[in-house]
Structure prediction request, 320 residues.
Amino acid sequence: AVQRILGLEKRLLHCPLSEVLGGYPEMAASVPQVLSCPEQVTGWSRYYECPDHGRTMTFRLALFPLAPDGLNGQILTVEDLTERTQMRSRIARMDRLASLGRLAAGLAHEIRNPLTGISLLLDDLHDRLLHTPEDQLLIRRALEEMERLEGLVGDLLNFSRVSISDCRPGSLQSVIERTLVLFEQTCHRQGITIERHFEPVAQIDLDEQRLQQAVLNLCRNAQEAMPDGGVLSLTLGQREDVVCLKVADSGVGMNDEQCRLIFEPFYTCKKEGNGLGLSIVHNIVAEHHGAIEVSSSPGEGSCFEMCFPVSSAEETNVKD
Prediction:
């Protein structure tokens, strides 16, 4: 069991403990140290968080005596608590997002009404100042800022709403192609090359408008990460009963801390931005019973991968 949990080679099982745990330096340093101090062994247990191929694994190690007097040796137990820890984190995140959503919805509704009134008054004032172009210019700038604020209010409402997606069996590739039609010209002007790597995949249950918003948000995020041009790559493929889309860029990339927080609402790595775009993507993917992950390194670009289960209708057709 330990061999499977820790991913050990079989030959290591008969080696000294420090060598068995060599792939986990923190464990290899602390466990032998505890065993060398009998007074510390009783009731000893500890949690370890270990990086493993881009994800964090959580283990609990504990020592138990082979005999009541503890003189005949100790049993070292290893538990993989990764799924339990991740589930606890997901539940905490959902609770946090629900609270933020209620707050955001309340603020957005309270702000939108006076914003509309201010915009109408500024429009009227602009029309009355036909003979003072300088004042009109100031009012136009104020109206532009109002539009930005209204955009933020709209994002807050999109983030906070509990959407009931109208999911039907459909083609994810078609959604991607429609999104790129809206997006290709801006990329071309910015010197960004779009690469498509599409394999034939099964249909998924999708809400076309919501999923198009998610793909567009990821593409815009990639575009903003490449201000001097680069390559935007979209890869569509299938692994057994899961359809996956990777959106990768050759931009500035992110460090581990940024990757950990990137889907949190109001967190942003940009000088300008409200930090809601990727949170909205995360919510849309969750609505489709999918999962989204990010991998990135500073200076090496970022890759977002969305995975969705194959449509139940598709699975039924395969069985028939």
